[in-house]
Design a protein that fits this description.
CATH class of the largest domain: Alpha Beta
CATH architecture of the largest domain: 2-Layer Sandwich
Strand content: 15-25%
Shape: globular
Largest sheet: 7 strands, mixed
Bound molecules: dioxothiomolybdenum(VI) ion
């Protein structure tokens, strides 16, 4: 069962509309509807606020502002991140454009939205700092990244290596603000009864958001139930607790009636997190035959004073290639924008876009094949941690990708291949992504009637978690997938590290397999040596009148020797062909091949789908996506899906996604690693490098839009 590319077991529910998402839940009875009014300035204060008109509007039940909002627990900058309380409407200060200034609850959504517009606000606007480039000189070096790794690493003497050359690259790259933008906007239905809060919440982290909500509302964790049975995409933006959940809960409690809140698409831009804009300086020094002697990656990224998110963008350089002299550093520049958060491939996406573009520049400077340059600097030992890179299949990915793509037919001279009105180019890049492991529990129960039920609070955010949980349990118990019922994403189930960081599937699989192992042992003990679950399923009650259950646990990586003795990563290589219109500068991707090694694959179909999605984000990061801040007002200028460009079908030709047959014995006992965000790793740089090969123009300010090529 492990590895089989079976269809999603929740697929029929989804395509028939029977998978019920947070905002559609009807568990709580007739709800009221809440609508958030956001600040129309980027920095300053509320000078005056008049809610009389809104309060007397039809159907209105409640208008909350900073003047009457219930007292809440204070924000705490906990290193665990996703369990941080996020109180709302606490002061008259405004720290970012769109910050909630009023919350209106009414009988219908339309009434709430109309009344929210009737709240009369006078602002005391202050000048803010909204522009990274203009404030980059205020960058503050960071000792520690948000994921706990050191902000700076230094080996040897990079400056000396750069002076010695003989061939060096020293370039600056900029990567823009990105938004996760899941298809399902963030939503919450809150139900308060009998001193207990139940939220049906679109979240990636059940246990963590439960704590965050409890602390925000001043409740004990066991007074809060979180249910996230179906979630329509997350991409990082549903890891954290946001305003819609807190405001729905506050209002439900105050009104003693269920309240539901969904963000509008524009509010997804203002009230959830963004990837910070970054300025990267990449330095490379090499011998004439292409041996790296030094590498450096300095990143300066936007942050907010209130809640700094220090994305690990320079960490990709730490494990990708050997070189004796190394320097990676992160600094932040505080701007008056909302706090940045984890967005699709945090760290690797922007980091590899810059670093692997620089590697391409080096290949041309040396006149060495870009694949050859990467192979030449491959390493089996993590150059900074000094431990083996387990499952290091980078060279396999590079060779397999080059062969499948037909890399040997690449135009060697940039700008040399013309087909009609188009310049055609090939590009490639390497990919690496950290593999994480977080504490996760799962329980397996066999009922006396033979039903097998698997439970964990890990959500399935659309990635296939329901299905892979059934596969793992079926394989481990020796039964059919259709004999397993999977229940996920409820705070009554064993807590997990959530669905993020590409770790949900491996965390859950390990815990689940351990639970199944215990069940197998119990059955063998009770029913006789050699008895398997299958042998007793028809008559469980005979051996276990109350049924039988067991809990399995995955330990956090800090406690796992595998993560001390090895540098845990997944690998990939991407190859792209683009055609650039000579007259307009329009870049079209013609084809792309991605080859990946991510340990043992649990479901070939869902894994491939995720990797393909990641490759599309990569194309997007090279050619399409950027959110722009108005430097005068601090608002997102293109904060909707009409103007925040993401690739559509017409932008994406057939792309080839290849998974190497792999098993990583040093990752865990199942050999599984994460795939969720690997597909994006290096893909953007493959496209950017193809654009250079086509045109001879090197664009270092992403995305590569038309005007930058003219
Ligand atoms: Mo992902 S940005 O870790 O949900």
């Amino acid at each position: 069962m492990i590895g089989a590319g079976i269809n999603r077991i929740d697929g029929p529910l989804k395509v028939t509309g029977r998978a019920v998402y947070s905002y559609e839940r009807q568990d709580a009875g007739q709800p009221f509807y809440g609508f958030i009014r956001g600040a129309a300035i980027g920095k300053g204060k509320i000078a005056a606020i008049d809610t009389a008109e809104a309060e007397s509007a039809p159907g209105v039940r409640l208008v909350l502002t900073h003047r009457n909002a219930p007292k809440q627990g204070a924000f705490v900058n906990k290193p665990t991140i996703f369990d941080r309380p996020h109180p709302q409407l606490t002061t008259d200060r405004i720290e970012y454009f769109g910050e909630p200034v009023a919350f209106v609850v009414a009988d219908t959504f339309e009434q709430a939205r109309a009344a929210a517009a009737l709240v009369n606000l006078t602002y005391g606007r202050e000048d803010g700092a909204f522009d990274l480039a203009n404030h980059a000189d205020q960058a503050e070096p960071q000792a520690t990244l948000s994921i706990g790794l050191p902000g700076e690493t230094r080996f040897g003497d990079l400056e000396a290596a750069m002076s010695a050359g003989p061939v060096t690259i020293d370039q600056t790259y900029t990567t823009p603000y990105h938004f996760s933008q899941p298809m399902e906007p963030h939503a919450c239905l809150a139900d308060w009864r009998d001193d207990h809060l139940t939220v049906y919440l679109a979240t990636q982290t059940v246990a963590q958001n439960r704590i965050a909500l409890a602390e925000t509302l001043g409740l004990a964790a066991d007074q809060v139930t979180v249910d996230a049975a179906f979630v329509g995409g997350g991409f990082g933006s549903k890891l954290y607790l946001h305003a819609e959940a807190v405001l729905a809960a506050l209002a439900a409690r105050k009104l003693a009636n269920p309240v539901k809140v969904a963000l509008t698409r524009r509010q997804v831009f203002t009230l959830t997190g963004h990837r910070p804009e970054m300025i990267h300086r990449v330095r490379l020094a090499a011998t004439l035959d292409g041996q790296l002697t030094g590498l450096g990656h300095d990143v300066n990224l936007q942050a907010a004073v209130a809640e700094p998110w220090i994305e690990q963008a320079a960490t990709v350089a730490r494990s990708l290639y050997a070189a004796p002299n190394r320097l990676t550093r992160h600094s932040i520049t505080n701007l008056d924008l909302k706090a940045a958060e984890a967005v699709r491939g945090p760290g690797e996406l922007p980091g590899l876009l810059a670093f692997e573009t620089a590697m391409d520049e080096l290949a041309y400077a040396l006149d060495i094949d870009p694949v050859e340059l990467r192979l030449k600097n491959d390493t089996a030992i993590d150059p900074e941690l000094g431990v083996p890179l387990n499952g290091r299949r980078l060279a396999d990915c590079l060779r397999e990708g080059a062969k499948r793509f037909g890399w040997d037919r690449r135009p060697k001279t940039p700008g040399s291949r013309r087909e009609g009105d188009h310049l055609v180019g090939y590009g490639m890049a390497a990919g690496i992504r950290m593999h994480f492991q977080g504490p996760t529990g799962a329980i397996v129960r066999i009922e006396p009637d033979g039903r097998v039920i698997v439970r964990s609070d890990t959500p399935d955010i659309g990635t296939g978690t329901y299905t892979i949980a059934a596969q793992i349990a079926a394989e481990s118990l020796g039964i059919g997938v259709d004999q397993v019922t999977v229940q996920l994403a409820h705070s009554d189930f064993p807590p997990s590290a959530g669905a993020g960081g590409s770790w949900g599937a491996s965390n859950l699989s390990i815990a689940l397999d351990r639970a199944c192992q215990q069940i197998r042992n119990r059955i063998a003990e009770a029913a006789g040596l050699g008895a398997t679950p299958n042998d007793i399923l028809a008559d469980v009650g005979r051996w276990f009148p109350e049924g039988v259950e067991a809990t399995g646990q995955t330990i956090g990586q800090a406690d796992d020797p595998n993560f001390k003795n090895y540098s845990q990563n997944t690998y990939g290589a991407a190859f792209a062909e683009v055609a650039v219109d000579i007259a307009t500068g329009e870049v079209r991707l013609r084809r792309m091949t991605g080859v990946f090694a991510a340990g043992r694959i649990v479901n070939a179909k869902t894994a491939r789908s995720q990797l393909m999605g990641g490759m599309i984000w990569g194309v997007s990061s090279a050619l399409h996506e950027a959110a722009h801040v108005d430097p005068r007002y601090g608002n997102w200028v293109n904060g909707d899906l009409a103007e925040y460009l993401m690739p559509v079908h017409a932008d994406i030709p057939a792309i080839e996604t290849v998974l190497l047959d792999d098993y990583d014995e040093h990752a865990n006992h199942l050999g599984i690693k994460g795939v969720g965000e690997l597909g994006v790793c290096g893909t953007g740089a493959a496209v950017s490098n193809a654009v250079f090969n086509a045109t001879g123009i090197r664009v270092r300010d992403f995305p590569i839009t038309l005007s930058k090529l003219l």
